[in-house]
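User: Teach me something about this protein's shape.
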Amino acid sequence: IMNLSNLRETQMKEEYISQHTQKIEKVADEVIEKIGNPVSVLQVAAVIESLGYRHVDCPVEFGRSNIFELSKDVYRICKLKAKSDKKVKKESEISLGERVWRFLKHYFSGIALGLPVATQIVFIAFTGYSLWAWVKFTEAQATIVAFGTILSFLTTGGFTQVMGREVMYYLSMGNKRTAREIAINLFNYGVYVVILIALVLFGFNLIFELFPQRFIYLILSYYFLLSLLWLSTSMIYAAKRKVSVTVILSIGTLIVIYLHKFESFSIHTAHIFGLVVASILMYIWARYVFRLRKEDKKVGYVSLKVKRPSVLAYVNSSFFKFGFYYFLLLFLDRIISWTAYSKGKFYFFWFRTPYELGMDWALLSFGLTLAVLEYAVNDFSELLIPKQKKFQVFKIKSHNSWWYYNFYFGKLSFLLIFGILSIVGVYFIVLKLGEIYQHIKEVREFFSSPITFKVYYFASISYLFLAVGMMNNLFFFTLWKPNLGLNAIRIAILIDLVVGLLASRLISWEYGVLGFFVGSLVFAVVSTYYVLKFMHTLDYQYYSAF
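Assistant: First, the predicted structure itself:
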């Protein structure tokens, strides 16, 4: 019996040691992924701490007394792996076929992000319905939906931006426990803010009566349900479950079609039912995606960001602001144009169909162009370490000002060429479809106003400038320098506001789009100026990011 007991105890110790060894090897892989072949134990210790591990985690998770003891084992494993690993393939050795495959892989990953919106456009085109729109809306009905929709994006933009960064970061580290807690907390904080703004708007309307009271109930319904939908969707996107978002939105849209077309529900009631179902399904699926399995619960630490919300807010304040500013820049021209005086305008904010059609037409080319950013930023991330290894320490200038300048201008040129081709292609394809389906009343109405064409011309180029600014900003985000992008987008919003107000009030209401045109141009130019300075000191920017 004693022998069996000793044998069992020995087996348990071996399993315990084996579990620790596997975890230490996993940390070594994370260190290699971050910095490649390390140069010292202290460097490894610094990287391990930057990955979120702490002294208190070491005894339970790794069987080591502290970070420095763990670093010695990780350093030894890294060196063994460095000897056995093959040398990194030089960029010059990558074949044309591999380059094309790399582009297609990242491009279609970027396209997948816009698949839910594309699906809603398909629903509108072939059925006349989407989850929150209808082709036969009166301008009063469209005003209700547009106001609620724009407000929902502005309210949740900051939360969804932080959700994407924080949750994806901890999931990439294998710390699902922290990722789950942050996702749920951000969702809850977002809901609190949504409710607060809804109460403020309701009270403000009671005093000043911006809209009839029956309108405000519908506006708040769309606003609240769409906000919940965006918050839940951002959780699922952070977990990289993109296809499920499209499926759930499609289910909600089919409910809208069924209730309005076959059960004679009013369009707003049908939309509210569809949004309720989609929001509930999205949230349930998000909670399921972030459920903790046994192995997830064994992770011995939860980030301080979960325990102290003030830390989460402080660390991510710049990213939160950018999320809000991005949607403000995206919708500011509509707010300016639709609040300007025009014939047939009943309330201070009044939806204009020809204007929105031009913006939506231009949005098609923007979606195609935006997917290129996934390729550009992934290429940048993947080449940081291999390219750094190619240059000696005395050739920093060549590394920064030569190779990465060429890299950036190559990506910028590709984006501009691809964007221009997308604009031209979308323009002629939509015109051709208009000719084919001109027997349909809604299609004829689409092309009936010259304002639609005018807005499309300005908006399509504006979206291309916006894509350039977004690409620059992704470079800043990659190395944790969000303030550079913040400076650029603040200036762009100010210019958009001034130019849009002057043009819409002095020329005609639809010229609010000029504000978006000039603002996006400024965003592209200023962010490009910052990114060139950024590339000039890229060695320092990379070093200081971790």
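Now, about its shape. The CA atoms of residues 228 and 350 lie 25 Å apart. Residues 10-16, 87-92 have pLDDT under 50 and may be disordered. If you'd like, I can walk through any region in more detail.
User: That's plenty for now, thanks!
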